[in-house]
């Protein structure tokens, strides 16, 4: 996945906001909360996303994937796809979408309604 493809995918999710911060990283948020980042890898594209408990345990030691610098060191379950082989693009998109969903689910129902985010109950 390229940075442009990453940005297009994240921008296609409902009620997302994009900012560039933290050393030229593309940071994607929903409801003001981060769900995906592209950057933070010595100038090369690296894709960072929130992971559920099982995904974190399964993927944290996979080739090309690591616990996300800074975030994981603070006890958060975030992963970074930083090198080949990593994840195939389709699987990476699924994990980014799952991250979006986890963050959106953490918003209040009122906030989700304001943003027009519909999640199956």
Condensed summary:
With 121 residues, the protein is an alpha+beta fold.
Gyration radius, to the nearest Å? 14 Å
- So how many helices? 4
Q: From the coordinates shown, what is the CATH architecture?
A: Alpha-Beta Complex
- In CATH, the topology is named Aspartate Aminotransferase, domain 1
Assign the structural class, choosing from mainly alpha, mainly beta, alpha/beta, alpha+beta, or little secondary structure. alpha+beta
The helix/strand series, from N terminus to C terminus, equals HEEEEHEEHH
What does the overall shape look like?
A: globular
The helix content is 25-40%
Q: Uncertain segments of ≥5 residues (pLDDT<50)?
A: none
What does this structure look like?
By secondary structure, the protein is α+β, with helices and mostly antiparallel strands. The chain has a single domain (3-115), classed as Aspartate Aminotransferase, domain 1. It is built from four helices and six strands, in the order H-E-E-E-E-H-E-E-H-H. Strands 1-2-3-4-6-5 form a six-stranded antiparallel sheet. A hairpin with an 8-residue loop joins strand 3 and strand 4. The chain is globular. The model has no long low-confidence stretch (mean pLDDT 92).
Features:
single chain; 121 residues; alpha+beta; Aspartate Aminotransferase, domain 1; 6-stranded antiparallel β-sheet; 4 helices
How is the topology of this model organized?
Layout: H1 3-11, E1 16-21, E2 25-30, E3 33-38, E4 47-50, H2 53-59, E5 65-67, E6 78-81, H3 89-105, H4 109-115
Antiparallel strand pairs: 1-2, 2-3, 3-4, 4-6, 5-6
């Amino acid at each position: 996945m390229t940075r442009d493809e990453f940005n297009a995918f994240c921008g296609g999710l409902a009620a997302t906001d994009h900012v560039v911060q933290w050393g030229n990283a593309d940071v994607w948020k929903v409801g003001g909360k981060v769900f995906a980042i592209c950057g933070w890898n010595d100038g090369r594209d690296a894709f960072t996303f929130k992971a559920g408990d099982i995904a974190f345990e399964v993927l944290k030691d996979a080739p090309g994937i690591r616990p996300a610098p800074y975030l994981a060191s603070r006890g958060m379950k975030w992963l970074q796809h930083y090198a080949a082989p990593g994840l195939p693009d389709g699987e990476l998109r699924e994990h980014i979408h799952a991250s979006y969903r986890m963050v959106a689910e953490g918003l209040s129902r009122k906030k989700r309604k304001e943003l027009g985010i519909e999640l199956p109950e």
